[in-house]
Design goal:
Oligomer: single chain
Structural class: alpha+beta
Distance between the termini: 40 Å
Order of helices and strands: EHHEHEEEHEEHEEEEEHEHEEEEHEEEEH
Number of helices: 9
Shape: globular
Number of strands: 21
Largest sheet: 7 strands, mixed
Radius of gyration: 22 Å
Length: about 400
């Protein structure tokens, strides 16, 4: 599951084979690579997988940026990335988050009834080894696409570290087709609607708007939006959802803006019931989805935690800046940077960090996160339960208490 805010653009322009200003000395590096290749050809004991070696060169180039969010995708991993954002994939049915400082990957959610759930995987488990390969320090998306996912019906052995003593637990997990339920909703007592947003995929806005409409038709008077454990996703999706519930009469409808290394960026805003995007280059996005002028004017609570990241923080930050609801939970993850997914024209792609993003008021949350209006820690005994009912969930109960206040 992607834990990045993603925009897609076409790669354009030609590549200069010589050294670019302040860039790598391409000619010198090419000569050294040719020298190494000659040694491999002359002395290497085993057969050389040239495709794998070539992929390794590009992966190494991106790895050298020392940015966990900038990576190279070969054809297989790029295809898996596209499946991921579509909301359907073949895998084990668990969500993973990665600490950008330590590189540690932790299971943040296990879907009830999914293969990971059946195998005994728990939230809080630390991924250690997949299919006999240590994944420590690897890019999370590549671990998911190249190691965890696979052919339907096949099995993968996954070692996790569990509990305070980091006990090693080995799980044998079946791979199956998994359709991610990105939005779940239900009506609670006292006409309180509850919407859980798992992540921001391309299919999420339509699911979210349908959930809001259904709850409104049932007579919803108050609403909880649960973004706990939500690692982020597609930026277009989150702004479309914001535009569906926020008014246009504050901050001129601004939902989000970005700034690159040159101080230039893009603005996402809603005017006259229509989502719009503008940039310092004067480029408009054609065919951008409409918000239809919908507005959700009722008491609202947004639930967040330390695994709420990226697009989740875009959503939460806009709610706070507009003073359109109360944020409850714990400090969010703090991922305030944007990645562009850039196809390279041959079935491969790179994902590159290109800019910071800012909430409508101009707050830069990167490496800081957002502080809830009401800080409530989840009870310790609930943190490792695969399924927590709303009745026993103390953060949900705090949200209901806030909504019950006059």
């Amino acid at each position: 599951v992607i834990d990045n805010q993603i925009q897609t653009q076409r790669a354009s322009g030609s590549v200069n084979s010589n050294q670019s200003k302040d860039g790598l000395e391409v000619d010198r590096i090419s000569a050294k690579m040719k020298q190494i290749q000659q040694m491999i050809h002359q002395y290497y004991l085993f057969d050389e997988d040239t495709k794998q070696v070539e992929d390794g060169i590009y992966m190494g180039l991106m790895y050298g940026l020392n940015d966990p969010y900038s990576v190279y995708y070969n054809e297989e991993s790029y295809q898996a990335m596209q499946e991921d954002t579509s909301g359907t994939y073949s895998g084990i049915g668990a969500m993973v988050s990665q600490n950008s400082t330590t590189g540690v990957m932790t299971i943040s959610k296990v879907f009830k009834g999914a293969p990971a759930y059946e195998a005994g995987m728990l939230p809080g488990d630390i991924l250690y080894e997949v299919g006999g390969t240590s994944i420590v320090g690897m890019d999370m998306q590549l671990v998911i696409s190249d190691h965890i996912r696979g052919e339907d019906g096949s099995f993968v052995k996954i070692k996790v570290l569990r509990g305070e003593n980091n006990d090693e637990v080995e799980l044998n997990v079946e791979r199956r087709k998994v359709e991610v339920p990105t939005v779940e909703h239900q009506m609670l007592e006292d006409q309180v609607g509850y919407i859980y947003v798992l992540q921001f995929d391309m299919i999420t806005p339509s699911q979210f708007c349908s959930a809001v409409d259904d709850l409104e038709n049932q007579g919803m008077k108050k609403l909880i939006i649960d973004l706990r454990g939500n690692p982020g996703g597609v930026v277009d999706s989150v702004v479309e959802m914001l535009a569906y519930i926020l008014p246009e009469d504050k901050m001129e409808g601004l939902l989000l803006y970005t700034g690159d290394k040159a101080g230039e960026g893009e603005k996402y805003f809603c005017k006259n019931g229509q989502l719009q995007q503008s940039s310092d280059h004067g480029i408009a996005v054609s065919g951008y989805p409409k918000a239809d002028g919908h507005e959700l004017k009722l008491p609202l609570v947004v639930l967040v935690n330390g695994h709420s990241a990226s697009a989740s923080e875009v959503f939460t930050g806009a709610i706070q800046d507009y003073d359109w609801g109360t944020v409850v939970g714990t400090q969010t993850f703090g991922k305030g940077i944007v990645q562009n997914l850039i196809p390279l024209g041959d079935g491969t792609a790179i994902k590159l960090t290109t800019s910071h993003y800012y909430t409508p008021s101009g707050f830069d949350l990167h490496k800081v996160g957002l502080t809830p209006d009401v800080v409530v820690e989840l009870k310790e005994e609930l943190k490792t339960k695969a399924v927590v009912s709303l009745e026993e969930d103390n953060q949900v109960q705090e949200a209901l208490k806030i909504l019950a206040e006059p």
